Amino acid sequence: MPLRTPRSLHLRLWGVIGMACLPVFLMAFFDYRERRQDAIVALENEVSRMLTAARLTEDAALGSMRQTFQIMARADNLQSLDPQDCSGLAQRLLQSMEDFANLGAALPDGTVFCSASPGQTRVSVTDRNWFQEAQSGEGITSGEFVTGRISGKPSMVFGYPVRDADGTLKAVLFASIQLGWFDKLIAEFKLPQGWNAFLLSDTGTVLSYHPAASRPPQTAQAPAGAAPFLRALQEGRRISEIEGLDGNRRMYGVGSPRFSRTPLLVAIGAPLDRTVARIDQGFWWRILLLAGIALVSVLTARFYIYGLIEAWTGQITAAIDSVAAGRLQTRIRRLSHVSELRAVEQGINHMASELEKREVDLRRLSTAVEQSPEAIIITDTEARIQYVNDAFLRSTGYTREEVLGQNPRILNRGLTPPATYATMWGALKAGKVWSGELINTRKDGSTYVEMATIAPIFDEDGQVTHYVSTKEDITQRKQSEALVHQLAYYDALTGLPNRALLHEHLQQAVEASAQGTAQGLLLLIDIDRFKQINDTRGHATGDWLLREMARRIQGCTGAADTVARLGSNTFGIIVPDIGGPSDLAQAIARNVHQTLAAPYDLGDAKRLYATTSMGIAYFCAGMPAPDILLKQAEVALYRAKDEGGNAVLFFDAPMQAAVDARAALEMALRDAIEIQAFRMFYQVQVDQHGTVVGAEALIRWIGADGKVVSPAEFIPLAEDTGLIVPMGQWVLDTACRQLARWQRSPATRHLTLAINVSARQFHQADFAAQLRSALERHHLDASGLKLELTESAILGDIDTTIERMHQLRELGIRFALDDFGTGYSSLSYLKRLPFDQLKIDQSFIHDMLTDNTSNAIVRAILVMSDALGLEIVAEGVETADHRAFLVQHGCQFCQGYLLGRPMPIEAWEEAHLAVGPAPGDTPTP
User: Fold this and answer.
1) How far apart are alpha carbons 189 and 206 in whole angstroms?
2) CB-based contacts of 99: which residues, under 8 Å, 6+ apart?
């Protein structure tokens, strides 16, 4: 073991020195890379500068060439296209242009007619790219590297179009640059020693090389050495390290003349060895120097290692002593580079840090407990208070000195049930946490409710040493809950339980009766015509009446009974046990009904009389659920209201059967409307001569079982539920469709069709619009349609009714007053309303031959209608004597079983459209 520590430290020492030297070597390496990169960048910049200068020279040459072309294009010598004049001009201009081989012009057909250099008499350039580009373009064309057909030498040729004012091509000027221009261009760069530059064709042929003295002999033809340059140009690498044509590696800048259509390559190379080689050599000298310094450092550090350990031991001892003295912020700031020593130092620092954190946590916990908004108490196992926080003092009003050492029972004035304390101590003795509500008393005597949580505190041996309790004052919350309960379960106006609480009490009463022999009672009370009381006496009086009735009902019930207000003017009473035979239920109901019927004194010698309707349901063992029981009482109440009110009815089975039957009929009727399970039947109407004049359309409902449902059953239900409106719309549309079919035939165009319109449908705001839409949709002559209204449809707002009828008469609609004489028939409204017909009810027709009163009424109606200019239709004509009497006394039209029963349209048309006089007809003299 003693030998391992020096050896381990020795290895760490070498590691430390290596780590110390590594940054130096890295710095030297990165410095070398930076220097080398800077040198290369400098070479790249110089090469780029020369390429840029070459491009500027190209632009200057193009500018000079453009100026020459413009001069030549505007010269008079060219306008005439005379070869001699043009050639002379070209020769004079060529003398002022250095390095240009030739200057001339070609006709639009490509024939050269002008040239500064003598050549063949006819030369065509139509195949030259520069000529083709000039024909379709404007300005100087791109240069094309070709062998001249006039000079026979390679050169770069440019074209320039000359056009008339209307844009017609007149001639194409051309100029050729000798390859010597590129040699001169490279020579002007004054390349330093070791640099070179050359011009390559796209096939790798060296067109120009500088310095010419160092030009390798094999470059005259496409050498393999040109391939890297061509590849760099194709890949877009402007600067690259490439082995030159002479075998030396240089930093080459590669570009292509912009004015050349023929792919050419310009390369300018700078030597690398004169700059980069010196940098490489300097780098290796630095490495050798640093290695020597590192070796000396290693040897020196080896001799000082033991002194380092001795100093470290003293530092560690001082740090431990400081922490032991309570200075927990002590830290070893300078850590050792030796991993073993560093581990010890970090362990000491971590220990001091954890101790400091625990001290901070204790202070924070102490502050949290002290400043907690909840009261906190700590007692010993004998329930003696050892600690209370400020919240406890604020909540109870005691001082800390008054409660320390006392038992928490000083807050108990007997308001908390003893069972609560028994449960609490049972849980605490078992080592469990207890939570519950306590009702305590403050020092000033006021009470408050608190939610307490008490938990035992255990030592390391599992023994209880203390109890800690947190308490929250929930007095306001309990008051809020009580208020919410009051609002949720009690009526604000009367203070009685509402429907929800009545349902809970009814559930309890039904469950209690199911376990014994008690008979209970549920009474529902509704004030008759309460809306009229509100409208005539005011809502304040209505509210007073509700409170007074609530008081009277409570006076009629016992303490075990429940009185509730279920709705606007409905009360409920639950009698859990009537205390005797069922006859007592009637006595209870009669007592409540009579008490509520007594007059109500409004003051100022004014009295209010109000009647009530009551529905009552029994419950006992084996009775249905509360919801069904409540529904039964409602059924009895609604039956009492339907019978005129001021009645007391007990629920029985026939009531339920009627309700169920009505509900089933309503559901079936809704389904029938949805699937339109109706058929239209037609009953014939004839005139005095027995001629068919039309029919009355009557709706019939075919039930799911195929049987016809009587209109007397479903029409009143449809009117009560509002379903009469969609049914009436179906009748209207069906009747219009049939009448339109009649009107399309000359044989039936004279027929009229009457339909019944209910009061609810007639008073719909959009009824007139619906009727107009039906007329337009079926392209109907409205004079053939007759609306039959009953007195219930026209009574009420008579002015609105008259206005509506006039609106419809403007469309051509005719009106008939149905069942005349059965209601409150008034001659005043007959005078004002625009009726066309009166229909005598069949009850008078049936008895008119045997009953003098009916006979007199029928004759009076006939005489009156004649005086008023109204037509008469007699319903219920069943015998020939009936019809004869009516015709004798001036009745224009008849309808009844004698003439034909209601039947589908197919049967109706077969029976009445191809027959002679109606039954009972006699020849007219």
Assistant:
1) 19
2) 177, 178, 180, 181, 184
Buried b (16+ CB within 10 A) or exposed e, 802-832: eebbeebeeeebbbbbbbbbeeeeeeebbee
Rounded to whole angstroms, how far apart are CA atoms 477 and 483? Answer: 10
Q: What's 191's DSSP letter? A: P
Structure tokens at 165: 């004012």
What's the pLDDT tens digit per position in 91-146?
A: 888 887 777 888 888 888 888 888 888 765 678 888 888 888 888 888 888 888 78
Closest CA to 730 of 743, 718, 742, 744: 718
What is the value of pTM for the model shown? 0.44
- By the 8 A CB rule, do 695 and 902 touch? no
Tally of CB atoms within 10 A around 12:
18
Q: Give 455-501 pLDDT, tens digit per residue.
A: 999 888 888 889 988 888 887 787 777 777 777 778 888 888 988 88
Residue with tokens 């050549």: 119
Which residues, including other chains, have CB under 8 Å from residue 270's CB and lie 6 or more apart?
Answer: 43, 46, 47, 192, 194, 195, 250, 251, 252
254, containing H or E segment: strand 249-255
Percentage, residues of the chain above pLDDT 90: 19
Residue 473 φ/ψ, nearest 5 degrees = -75, 115
Greater pLDDT, 351 or 593: 593
As a whole number of angstroms, the distance between CA 739 and CA 778 comes to 9
In order, the DSSP letters of 316-365 are HHHHHHHHHTT-TT----S--SSHHHHHHHHHHHHHHHHHHHHHHHHHHH
Encode pLDDT of 839-864 as tens digits: 998 888 988 899 888 899 899 989 98
